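[step 3/7] fold_predict: job queued, chain A
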Amino acid sequence: MLKVWTDGAESGLIDRFDERGTSFVYLPAIAAERAVSVTMPVRLPSWDIPYGLVPIFEMNLPEGVLRERLRLAFAKATGTFDEFDLLSVVGRSQLGRIRYTGEREQLHEDVPFQSVDEILQQRRDGDLFRYLIDKFASFSGISGVQPKILVRDEQASAALSTAKPRLSQSYRGATHIVKLWDANEYPQLAANEHFCLNVVGKCGLDVPRYQLAEDGMALVIDRFDLRADGTYHGLEDFCVLNARRTDEKYSGSYESSIMKRFQEFANSPHINQDMEKLFTLIALNCAIRNGDAHLKNFAIIYDDVLGEARLAPAYDLVTTSVYLPQDSMALTLNGTTRWPGAKELRRFGETRMGGSPARIGQILERIADAMSEVREQIRPYIKEHPEFKEIGERMIVEWEKGAAHSLAANTK
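[step 4/7] structure written:
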């Protein structure tokens, strides 16, 4: 049995249910603001699921390399290693406001220190990838097939300790996300994402602070769910909002599963502004040819589970078509996963965002201008980092094709 915590306070208990399911129950007389999700209000009956975990508890479970590393480390001790076991390992250190401990344990994160400068400058002998995975895997409640870990940077922790409101001296949580890549699968993935995020920022969208390692082996991102006082914003991805499991993250449409669902849960006076940002982000993903803009790569962020929710800063954007030339969209738009033309994106913006034709045109033009600016950043980076030449040149080609087709932009 695991104890579930929200905002640092006990909220309920989760246990195995039948052969492969789980059951969650709120503690008696728990306050409504202790709810674990905007989709799971406090109630007396338990929340039972016949297989796996409810989406909010599954949301941050590692995938890919990190999950396999933890399975190999813990399966012998547990006899099995299913999602419940994985949650019990990484549950103390997660993105967002929810934490998990043993039934009789108190909450403490205790993420080890790791210099971000050391990662950015690769001031460590040997295999940095293996070292970081081995050291931080069990502290990394963060989803994604790409290897990601959560680390606590000493300088960042010191800065937080002088913030107002002052960070608790007992804070031991992670301050940064470190994204790595396997040269045998997706070469130069960190630099790829770095330039995609540059486009996001130039489009005026919210993006967390990020830094590319000097050798391109890692991308270090500030946690955007961490407040200055060491507490956490609520964070829920669109798998949670659509009541879907992680393995269903490619199911749905941008019209209903993203735009319509956001309208249902936003609960904000800024909804029109955020709807425009959401449309911009979807159109941008089409133009840079990111075929991995699935349900888990969009999220809402909030301070109060009962209050206002906003669109979370953009994250996990890459040009996937440089690795998968025949790639298509992760979700459907107008009933298909084919990359949309500018006419289809304009109609999508007008009907789902409610924007005027002139405003939609301005948004698409802004995306095209941002891509053009960042393309000129890629060229000198290729000269300084010849190992990026193949991927960088493919990105330029894909962006030119994407802008011409999806934005009707003149890329020459």
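[step 5/7] annotate
The longest helix spans residues 357-384.
The chain has two domains: 2-180, 234-406.
exit 0
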